[in-house]
């Protein structure tokens, strides 16, 4: 991990970027000293139907928790992404869609996207969707996912996008949690040359969700699907009869725009709610400054729309800024490991935003696949989702960007709505592995175990002292969970769940989750979720899951499983449990290691000592710490011996 080189801002960047270091400092100071003034101005980036007169009404006090921004203003998120650009950008490309197969692509101009969205908004209305209704979207990476989301926003319906890699079970839970009565999906998805049976999974989920009485299916492959007349509708049929006129609904700034489920330390994923005015202000401002986005730049975020990165930085941020956003259906190494850079050349991408896990996988395949492409269009390289190890950072910087392009390592979360800590490329000295400085309006604090704020250099739990407009507002259906999850740890502060180190220059280095959340290839998973899945298996008595360092995935899933009395451990059972978890949650939750544990290390009060399990999983047997509080310290010895034998 040690890399001490630093990369100062090149003079050309400082001159051309939206912010050089003096401007960053001035804007940052203003944003934290006078948040009302700063955000009051920034909110004007959007088109408001009724302008706000109040900017901020926030309390982080746990007994009086409330967060409102621009709360007497009204607007429509969809018309901010589309209608307001029509006068100047009707024929500009809004979305460049690059198919899984390199010979397949589609573009939609702002004018075309506007028509599709209006038509689908009318389809939703015809199907009875009203303002405030929850619409579940379970789709592959095709332009229709953007159409569906924006159509919801247009009529004031709340979308809940569920990543296409989630299992029917996971989908059903999310549909039930937000009490959604309509599902938008596709016949099949396509990735890496293989098809993914989305409608079949949706069918299984709907069996458990009788309330879903409308299912709209986009035809992506034409593959065979089961059909239930009356419930299932082809997207294409509905669209062909739909009108292109649809007035946007006037929404309050604090009306929910969407729900996005994310994993926490408990078994049940949380429906994070983002609202309209503050969220859109925040994602457009961060998209402009962090990526130094200028008019005409072709911008590509490789994330899946099913995650927050896709919501904020494929759809809402770029479109509200009038950008051309690339949407990619495929994966980094299909048909071969040159694919990303070929896409950059083909579409003249200026800004690419991807995940460390993709960089590490490509790095493993060597420099040749990169070097056979030009990449001359590239100007900036972004990363998100997990800590980036300096070796991957340097490879990205030196091999991909040929030392021309700043690497912006952006730290944020589903809950934060947008980027929180990241270098502004014209302003900050880059350090491989550091997310560097807070964005405008962001007041990070490092807190020690006793809740004291650490000043100067040091490490602690990363918290936020004040709100920002993109912050989540509440957990859907569970008003108190916001406070319990994020504000009960340290009074008056938002608790992120990440550990962080601040160096003597004031730069922030995120060290990873300090709660029971793990980050597998940039996908966020709760260890409790995987445990809940494992114990559903009839042969499993108990399970404890931890993350462990994994060279490609960042973190891998390590499961300790105690079998029921009389059940014999076997490789076949191990395989069966692996399949079982994949079926319950989805392939992203594939356990990398299952270790049989005749018993688990517990305190006398019965609490599993995860700290010890993490160390054993990491092979770090020497520093297990104090095991004297365990009910039976010999358990640890047995686990270590098992682990060594694996
Ligand atoms: C981790 C993704 C280090 C972190 C936008 C956070 C990162 C969690 C970084 C949120 C980064 C994200 N450096 N860690 N640049 N970006 N993380 O909700 O642990 O899917 O809490 O949001 O990913 O994951 P989520």
From TrEMBL:
InterPro entries: Ac_CoA_lig, ACAS_N, AMP-bd_C, AMP-bd_C_sf, AMP-binding_CS, AMP-dep_synth/lig_dom, ANL_N_sf
Organism: Trinickia fusca
Molecular function GO terms recorded: acetate-CoA ligase activity; AMP binding; ATP binding; metal ion binding
A GO cellular component annotation in the UniProt record: cytosol
Residue ranges constituting the AMP-binding enzyme C-terminal domain according to the UniProt record: 529-607
SUPFAM superfamilies reported for this sequence: Acetyl-CoA synthetase-like
Family annotation (Pfam families): ACAS_N, AMP-binding, AMP-binding_C
Protein's name in the database: Acetyl-coenzyme A synthetase
């Amino acid at each position: 991990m040690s890399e001490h080189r630093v990369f100062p801002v090149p003079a050309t960047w400082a001159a051309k970027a939206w912010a050089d270091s003096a401007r960053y400092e001035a804007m940052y100071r203003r944003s934290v000293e006078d948040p009302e003034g700063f955000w009051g101005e920034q909110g004007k980036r959007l088109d408001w139907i009724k302008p706000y007169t109040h900017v901020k009404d926030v309390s982080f006090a746990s007994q009086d928790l409330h967060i409102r921004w621009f709360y007497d203003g009204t607007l429509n998120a969809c018309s901010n992404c589309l209608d307001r650009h029509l006068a100047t950008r009707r024929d500009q490309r809004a979305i460049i869609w690059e198919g899984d197969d390199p010979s397949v692509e589609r573009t939609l101009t702002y004018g075309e996207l506007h028509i599709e969205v209006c038509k689908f908004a009318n389809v939703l209305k015809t199907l009875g969707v009203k303002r405030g209704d929850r619409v579940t979207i379970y789709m592959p990476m095709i332009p229709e996912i953007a159409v569906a989301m924006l159509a919801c926003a247009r009529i004031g319906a709340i979308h809940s996008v569920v990543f296409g890699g989630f299992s029917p079970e996971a989908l059903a839970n999310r549909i039930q949690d937000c009490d959604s009565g309509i599902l938008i999906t596709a016949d099949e998805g396509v990735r890496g040359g293989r098809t993914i049976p989305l409608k079949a999974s949706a069918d299984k989920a709907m069996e458990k969700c009788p309330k879903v009485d409308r299912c709209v299916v986009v035809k992506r492959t034409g593959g065979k699907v089961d059909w239930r007349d009356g419930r299932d509708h082809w997207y294409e049929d509905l669209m062909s009869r739909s009108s292109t006129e649809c007035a946007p609904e006037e929404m309050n700034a604090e009306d929910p725009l969407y729900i996005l489920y994310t994993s926490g330390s408990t078994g049940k994923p949380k429906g994070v709610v983002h609202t309209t005015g503050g969220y859109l202000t925040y994602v457009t401002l961060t998209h402009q400054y962090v990526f130094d986005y200028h008019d005409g730049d072709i911008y590509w975020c490789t994330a899946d729309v099913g995650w927050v990165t896709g919501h904020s930085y494929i759809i809402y941020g770029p479109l509200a800024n009038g950008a051309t956003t690339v949407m990619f259906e495929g994966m980094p190494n299909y048909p071969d490991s040159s694919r990303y850079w070929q896409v950059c050349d083909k579409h003249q991408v200026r800004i690419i935003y991807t995940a460390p896990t993709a960089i590490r996988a490509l790095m493993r395949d060597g420099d040749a696949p990169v070097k056979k492409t030009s990449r001359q269009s590239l100007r900036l390289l972004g990363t998100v989702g997990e800590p980036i190890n300096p070796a991957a950072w340097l490879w990205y910087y030196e091999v991909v960007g040929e030392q021309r392009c700043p690497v912006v390592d952006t730290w944020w979360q589903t809950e934060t709505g947008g980027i929180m800590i990241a270098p502004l490329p014209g302003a900050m000295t880059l350090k491989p592995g550091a997310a560097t400085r807070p964005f405008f309006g962001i007041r990070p604090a490092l807190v020690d175990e006793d809740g004291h704020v650490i000043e100067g250099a040091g490490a602690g739990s990363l918290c936020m002292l004040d709100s920002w407009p993109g912050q989540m507002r509440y957990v859907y259906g569970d008003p108190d969970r916001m406070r319990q999850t994020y504000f009960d740890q340290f009074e008056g502060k938002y608790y992120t769940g990440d550990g962080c180190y601040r160096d003597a220059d004031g730069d922030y280095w995120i060290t990873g989750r300090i709660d029971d959340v793990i980050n597998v290839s940039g996908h966020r998973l709760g260890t409790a979720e995987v445990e809940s899945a494992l114990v559903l298996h009839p042969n499993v008595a108990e399970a404890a899951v931890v993350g462990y360092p994994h060279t490609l995935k960042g973190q891998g899933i390590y499961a300790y499983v105690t079998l029921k009395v009389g059940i014999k451990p076997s490789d076949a059972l191990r395989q069966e449990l692996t399949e079982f978890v994949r079926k319950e949650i989805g392939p992203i939750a594939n356990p990398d290691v299952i270790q049989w544990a005749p018993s688990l290390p517990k305190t006398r009060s019965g609490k599993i000592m995860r700290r010890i399990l993490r160390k054993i999983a990491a092979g770090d047997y020497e520093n297990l710490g104090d095991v004297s509080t365990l009910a039976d310290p010999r358990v640890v010895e047995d686990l270590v011996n098992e682990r060594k034998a694996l």
